[in-house]
Amino acid sequence: MAAMMTGSTGLKRWVERYPFLPALLILIVLLALNGFYQPRSVSMAGITGLTKTYLALMLLAVAQTYVVYAGDIDLSAGAILSLVNVVIVVLMQHWGGGALSVFGAIGVGLLVGLACGLINGVVVAALRLQAIVATFATSIFFTGLALYVLPVAGTPAPAAFWRTYGGRFLDIPFVFYAVVVLALLLRLLVRMRLSLQLLAVGDDAQRAFQSGLAVTAIRMKGYALCGLFAALAAFCVTGDTASGDPLVGGKMTLFSVAAVVLGGSALAGGYGTVVGSVFGALIIGLINSLVYFVGTPSEWQNLLQGLAILVALMAGVIVGRRARA
Amino acid sequence: MNAILDLVKRPLLVALLLIVGLLLLGEWLSPGFASGQQILRLLIVAALLGIVAAGQNLVILGGREGIDLSVGGVVSLSAIIAGNLMNGADAGIPLAILACVAAGALFGLLNGLGVTLLRIPPLVMTLGMLGVLQGLLVVIRQGIPSGRAAPGLSQFVSQPFLLGLPGIIWLWIAVGVAMALLLNRTIFGQRVYAIGSNEHAAWMAGVPVRLVRIGIFMLSGVFAAIAGICLLGYSGSSFANVGEQYMLPSIIAVVFGGTSLAGGKGGYTGTMAGAFMLVILQSILTTVNIDESGRQMVFGATLLVLMLFYGRGKAMRA
Amino acid sequence: MSKLKLGGVSKAYGATMALRRGDLEVEAGEVHVLIGSNGSGKSTLCKIAAGSVRPDAGEVSIDGQPVRISGPQAARSLGIGIFYQELSLAAHRTVAENIFLPDLPVTAGLFVDRAALSGRAARYTALFDGVAGDGLSTDAVVENLRADQRQLVEIMKALATEAPILIFDEPTSALDRAQVDRFFDILRDLKGQGRAMIFISHRMDEIFAIGDRVTVMRDGETVATARIADTDQAEVVRHMVGEAGQGAQAAAPAPVAEGETVLAVRGISGVGYSGVSFEVRKGEILGFGGLHGQGQSRVLRAIFGAHPVASGEILLHGTRLAARGPREAIRSGLAYVSGDRGRDGVIHGRPILENVIPIHALRQRLHLANPAALRQKAQAAVEALRTKFAGFSHPINSLSGGNQQKIVIARWLIDRPDVLLLDDPTKGIDLSAKADLFALIRRLAAEGLGIVLYSSEDAELLANADRILVFNGGRVTRELTGEARTRFNLTQAAYEAA
């Protein structure tokens, strides 16, 4: 009995320290199942394809995580992604599609993401509007902007852009470099003071304020960071789809929220990790592919995916609560 | 200044004034916008949104970050089930209504159980349920050919039914009366407010908090299902994800009706006005000669400005 | 010249005056004790100095210079550090992160310097080495710590500000003897460094052990300041009690309670209370006394099914009651009125009628709310309390605090309960409402209800309770009956070291 007790508290300590552990476990199981039903899916090509498709969602989930840290939510993340996607595609076309135009467009894209994030921050943190409805309103606004920049989907991204994204360097797919850079970036961000401050605000905003934290400014920075990562996600979408689409990100917003919850973060704020959200995005991707690999008839695939994600979401919430209780 | 502040405390009045103002604006921009016929058309569209918002209203009133993202999915599901069961024949209407309401109640029950027994946050639970519903839609649509609305239903929704008003407007009025009675003349309604306003005090006063919350989610599913049937009548045939357009607007209609997202405060009369206001606003934007991008930008910005009228959060330092 | 001086500071929350007139002067190199009963305004005064509450009026000066404290950050930069009574810790963060949350060590202006963080935090955790108990390390998550350890972390957080002015608002309430001794050693050391410190405690022995001067507050006002060396416990208690209360004791002789036992509690224990036993007879008013938060509320809630009972038993009319929640307790005939009406009683923003009928609706299993019929039922209940209100359809928040509480109490009067549990029911309500309330309580007792009354105001207990159980540290430590029910005895019993 005593051994069991220490066993369970040991597990609790681990989960507490690394809230993404349950997500990692689910991820490994899903990977194994994927490999079992379709050995090629865990090959180099399979993993490359998965990463290429879901890198954007991983980044968008990371974006969402920073606002969720502070107990906020951003329903405009997908719209920011769309806006950045069309802005860079149009700019690159306008500037001739060369390497310089790509870098220029990426710079502008980051600025656009940052600006959108700041608008959300002002609206939610400074004007104190409800995050859920206010960011829905800004999402409509950003979508309008995206439609203004590019009224219909289809403008192709320059070859230099998507060939790089889908290509290889030294025999290693580009997306893996992107993943490594992302990992390093997240490693840095985890150590950033802002991450800790956001979590403290999400834990209890009033207490954080009484401790002397600039709560409004911190929440605004969270939204700004969210905008930046949404822009990064947009670059990946552009690389993956090779074109501009003013509505491409709309559907991704709710998936980014789901990925955050799957990753073990609490929507109420104060508890979570960005790594978990990355795993959450991959879980969504692997569920989708697994459903396909087990030979589900095509019309049943969406239902099975939906059910599996619902179960995973519930399990994530319950396991997370158990671990903390 | 004080007069303005007083206005802010009366969201229903604000919404009604905005409705009149928007109608006048529409009439000015495009003569004929506020004609009787046109207003009737707007009311039909508003009724669809308004009925979905009735359920959303209850969920939000019940507090604890209550929100139902699955309503759009239920609307779509119901429209498809109804279309298949009717398949263009009036004889199928009763069965269709029964099946749709049952389906709505079932998904509401599942949401309610998840939220109360498993203590999943409503946002997460209903988001997951939305995914399941969308999957279910695909299954149903691929298994059975898409159905058509019964002529009786289409007539009910868009043709004059009684006193020159289409049936759906009467239905909306009936929903309004039913909601008013439910919220004000039943113990259940009072308990909805009680758990939304102060769940702990309600529990201490013997309110069966979980049962009430489950009931709320079931009603939300039922209202969405009813709206789905009407939507089928409005559009003639069912197509995938028709309900998605109601998910977030139903929340906005509730907020513009003066119901607080924190729960326990508000009512359905305001929501009806909020739904109508939202529909007029959208309609004005389609009337005026700007392209889609401009419409969306103006719409988003207008929503933000309007939100400033409705309850901002508390400042940190008292 | 005083290090910190607060003059004529006041603060009102709506109609409630939290602080009428707070005056306080603290010198460098002293521990200045602030004492006063619950709700006397001590915490509000401290929060104003710390910038987290905006004062309505008054002046603050530091080193003789008038200052404006615009927020917690401003207070910190002016050199004021505070220990918050309700703690200001982020539950999911580590001890080190919490200690330095307002001022995290960074490298390159962006990244938390983990090494410096834990190194610096270790200096503060080391202060309590040997007395902090297992598990309090710099990388422990605050949520997993015991109550006393969390309090130590909040102390470390205040100390880590290294501010010249330090405010400690009840820092010792959860600490054990050894921890308090260590804390006092630290305070003496800081005193030697010339820091100015404010110290709030309800333990009289602590105050005399560490204080240099003492300021007494009563009813939101500063009433006296004295050197500890020139005063004694009795004098401090007299200042706290006030002129009017000097001789106060039980007004009416205790009526002889001869009714049958309606509620019997046998050795119940749970979180925050242990080994509590007592009996209440029909028609008896049993008082719970002692300092606030000594387990009185928890015992009452536990009986009502709203707080877990780990062991022991509760008998109602001789049959065992094990309410899994308030619903069952209510159906069995229990009633509970909380003094924290904002949290436990009032259904905010709703009409008065809806606030009166929930218990009736439950006990009669109603489904429809017929306003006319319910109004009639509610009318009688509300009249019994002489409640002033314009109409049943008005929102409850339109009433004064006292009338709100009357409405909350009225909900129990439509269908009479057998036992009424009153958990500091008059907190923050005006005198006339209190009088009406106690008149009702006495009438209900006369009608044969068994009543348990916890009050944080000694005068109320003395005037109304037939017997008083004094709580200390979750246990009943004294029983005052008959002639022994005096204010002096009550205060002394409450302030005895647990």
How would you describe this protein?
The complex is a heterotrimer of chains A (325), B (318) and C (498). Chain A has 325 residues and is mainly α. Chain A has one domain (20-324): ABC transporter involved in vitamin B12 uptake, BtuC. Chain A is built from 14 helices and two strands; from the N terminus they run H-H-H-H-H-H-H-E-E-H-H-H-H-H-H-H. Chain A has helices spanning 2-17, 21-37, 44-69, 77-94, 99-126, 131-149, 159-166, 174-191, 193-203, 205-210, 215-241, 252-262, 274-293, 298-324; strands spanning 168-169, 172-173. Chain B has one domain. Chain B has a two-stranded antiparallel sheet with strand order 1-2. In chain B, a hairpin with a 2-residue loop joins strand 1 and strand 2 (165-166). In chain B, 58% of the residues are buried. Mean pLDDT of chain B is 88; it is low at 1-7. By secondary structure, chain C is an alpha/beta fold. Chain C folds into two domains: 4-241, Rossmann fold, CATH 3.40.50; 261-495, Rossmann fold (3-Layer(aba) Sandwich). Chain C has a six-stranded mixed beta sheet, with helices on both faces. Chain C has a six-stranded mixed beta sheet with strand order 18-19-20-15-21-22, sandwiched between helices. A four-stranded antiparallel beta sheet of chain C has the order 2-1-4-5, covered by helices on one side. The model of chain C has no long low-confidence stretch (mean pLDDT 87). At the A-B interface, helix 6, helix 10, helix 12 and helix 14 of A face helix 6, helix 11 and helix 13 of B.
